[in-house]
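Morning F.,

Quick status update on the modeling queue. The single chain you submitted on Monday has been processed. Sequence for confirmation:
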Amino acid sequence: MTAPSRIAAQRRTDDIRVFREELARLEADGVLRLSEGQREAVAGHHDALLARFAAAFDIDRDARAKPQPAA
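Structure tokens below.
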């Protein structure tokens, strides 16, 4: 993977957060079950990406850290 820009890294970080939320919903609804090995592989890959992005850029790793739009 080439080195992303801060904007690309933040976008990917947001995508990972959304993926994890949707995966949890799918599992709770009984639609999809990953094996333990698959779950660990995906989580490990995502965790490594997030660590790399956090070391290289000022990214918001979770929704609480992101600035919220004004109401």
